[in-house]
UniProtKB/TrEMBL annotation:
TM segment ranges: none
InterPro entries per UniProt: FTHF_cligase (IPR002698), FTHF_cligase-like_sf (IPR024185), MTHFSD_RRM (IPR034359), NagB/RpiA_transferase-like (IPR037171), Nucleotide-bd_a/b_plait_sf (IPR012677), RBD_domain_sf (IPR035979), RRM_dom (IPR000504)
Keyword terms, alphabetized: RNA-binding
Protein name: Methenyltetrahydrofolate synthase domain-containing protein
Region (Disordered): 84-136
Organism: Macaca nemestrina (Pig-tailed macaque)
RRM domain sequence ranges: 143-216
Entry GO CC: cytoplasm
Length: 220
């Protein structure tokens, strides 16, 4: 976002402050296009120059932005309007890319996801559903997959790596390590069902994970 409004550039150094025990090497395959590389790490005992030459993201990756985020962060709507006028691809997460015909630019309504003030929306019910929802984000959808029986010492990077190796990468991963579970969001119910079949028998360490559609898990 800071790049989009011109507040920073690719020459702007990125500095973070952590404890010494938090300094670890992250495998390149776990990084995504929107991840920001750090130039300097400050700890209580030292200053580390990373020397990382990985390109920094040069703007907002709109495909990672959901309609819910657009509702909650008004400045995103302004930035999206500006980039759409500039001819950039501002397709949001979950919007259907296949509806766009090659060579034909279609406008994405900037008020998509917005409703008249008196019209109740899905998030109005989500606040109530969140209290009893395993994912804490409203009632599980048909495109959500439940992953349970995670090892107590498992990390989200372990699960991400396993998903990549199996070719079953979700749109979003919600990690709930203390509850030894995670929720995977896929584009549609068919993709979710395929992921459930693909992940049956998946093991992390010595533990075999429980994998099922999130709605089925809730109904048990």
């Amino acid at each position: 976002m800071m790049v989009s409004i011109g507040a920073v550039s690719k020459e702007t150094p990125v500095v973070t402050i952590v404890h010494d025990c938090q300094v670890v090497d992250i495998p390149e395959e776990l990084l995504e296009e929107h991840d920001i590389a750090v130039d300097y790490i400050l700890t209580p005992t030292r200053v580390i120059t990373t020397g990382c030459e990985r390109p920094q993201p040069m703007g907002i990756t709109w495909s990672k932005i959901s309609r819910e985020m657009m509702e909650k962060i008004p400045v995103l709507r302004s930035l999206r309007a500006r980039e759409q006028q500039a001819g950039k691809d501002v397709t949001l997460q979950g919007e259907h890319q296949h509806l766009r015909e090659p060579g034909r630019q279609q406008a994405v309504p900037l008020n998509a996801g917005r409703r008249p003030p008196d019209t109740p929306g899905p998030e109005a019910n989500s606040m109530e559903a969140a209290r009893g929802s395993p994912a804490g984000e409203g009632a599980p959808l048909a495109a959500d997959v439940y992953v349970g029986n995670l090892p107590r010492d498992a990390r989200v990077s372990d699960l991400k790596r396993a998903l990549r190796e199996l070719g079953s990468v979700p749109l979003r991963l919600t990690w709930q390590g203390l509850q030894r579970r995670a929720f995977l969001r896929y584009p549609d119910s068919a993709a979710a069902q395929q992921a459930v079949s693909c992940l049956q028998g998946l093991r992390l360490g010595t533990d075999t994970l429980r994998v099922a559609l999130a709605r089925q898990q809730r109904d048990k």
